[in-house]
Write a structure and sequence with these properties.
The complex is a heterodimer of chains A (about 140) and B (about 150). Chain A has strands spanning about 5-10, 20-25, 30-40, 45-50, 55-60, 65, 65, 80, 85, 95-100, 105-120, 125-130, 135-145. With about 140 residues, chain A is an all-beta fold. Chain A has a six-stranded antiparallel beta sheet, with no helix packed on it. A five-stranded antiparallel beta sheet of chain A has the order 7-1-13-3-11, with no helix packed on it. In chain A, strands 5-9 form a two-stranded antiparallel sheet. The relative contact order of chain A is 0.45. The radius of gyration of chain B is 14 Å and the shape is globular. Chain B has a six-stranded antiparallel beta sheet with strand order 5-7-2-10-4-8, with no helix packed on it. Chain B has strands spanning about 5-10, 20-25, 30-40, 50-55, 60-65, 70, 80-90, 100-105, 110-120, 125-130, 140-145. The chains are: A mainly beta (about 140), B mainly beta (about 150). At the A-B interface, strand 1, strand 3 and strand 13 of A face strand 4, strand 8 and strand 9 of B.
């Protein structure tokens, strides 16, 4: 069990799209333990966390999660992506949904004490469920590989 | 394991500046458990964004502040590792962060980051609370064990 985390600032606010994807490596699954975010601008937001219908294709410059115990020399393999050649498609159902007010700093911290298990080469997405554009977000994920 | 905490008012407010630093040491293994940031002064109407990360280069020439024991043990913070000032060079801004949050420009707005398994301070590096944007002065509180 090794804990990794990573912060991002999302780059997309487009309705009915994914704004972030948490990608399991082809040889390593992960458990999502925590997902948090705060809004960067005063814009109403509606979001959901779920497994996409189809995962994103050709993620743009995915970033690898950081070890929270630097004494563990095994590097993380989970990555996060904010843009894609072909984006993920909408989840059929969501693990969590939330609405945030039009206030800078509005947000939430979702914790999953036993983790949401994501299998090798599968993903989770933060999906924009609102009917108009939303705020960009400062997000962070905590995973157990 | 002993637990300590400290609460300070930040003074380095510029963009990409470090606010505070926990510097690792071979003598002890520090587990950071909680970070609480509360805005204490406004930022000219602009939101404040803070982030926690290992720096690209750790600070040098620090003036340490000792943590306050939380468990009333007779053992104090024998290897202080917390600093807000650097006589030689401040830690430098990195590319990636463990946590990042934006706080609206209202005194009292806050964010808390918790690390149930502990965020380990590297023995050869440090953990730094950086300003991603220019920020308002904040009351920041840290809880850790060693």
């Amino acid at each position: 069990m090794a804990i990794f985390s990573l912060a991002n600032r999302t780059t997309s606010s487009t309705t009915a799209t994914a704004t972030q994807e948490i990608i399991a490596a082809t040889s390593q699954s992960y458990r999502l333990l925590e997902f948090g975010f705060t809004a960067v601008s005063a814009t109403t937001g509606m979001f959901g966390i779920g497994t996409p219908g189809s995962i994103g294709v050709t993620p743009t410059s995915p970033v690898t999660v950081l070890a929270e115990d630097s004494g563990d020399t095994t590097p993380g393999q989970t990555t996060t992506a904010l843009a894609w050649g072909t984006g993920p498609t909408v989840p059929t159902n969501f693990f969590r949904r939330i609405t945030t007010p039009a206030t800078i700093g509005a947000g939430t911290i979702f914790t999953f004490p036993r983790g949401i298990k994501i299998l090798k080469a599968k993903t989770l997405v933060l999906w924009i469920t609102y009917s108009t554009t939303v705020a960009l977000l400062d997000t962070w994920v905590v995973v157990d590989e | 394991m002993s637990s300590f905490s400290i609460s300070v008012r930040t003074t380095n407010l510029g963009v990409t500046s470090p606010s505070v630093e926990f510097i690792g040491a071979p003598e002890e293994r520090i587990y950071l458990w909680q970070v609480l940031i509360t805005l204490a002064a406004t930022n000219g109407g602009n939101p404040s964004t803070f982030a926690l990360a290992q720096p690209a280069v750790k600070g040098s020439g620090p003036s340490y502040l000792a943590g306050v024991p939380e468990d009333q043990t007779v053992f104090g913070d024998n290897f202080p590792s917390f600093t807000m000032t650097w006589a030689s060079s401040a830690p430098t801004y990195p590319s990636n962060f463990f946590r990042q949050s934006t706080i609206d420009d209202v005194v009292g707005n806050c964010i808390v980051w918790e690390f149930p398994n502990g965020l380990v301070v590297p023995s050869t590096s440090s953990l730094v609370l950086f300003n991603v944007s220019a920020v308002g002065a904040a009351d920041v509180s840290f809880t850790w064990g060693d």
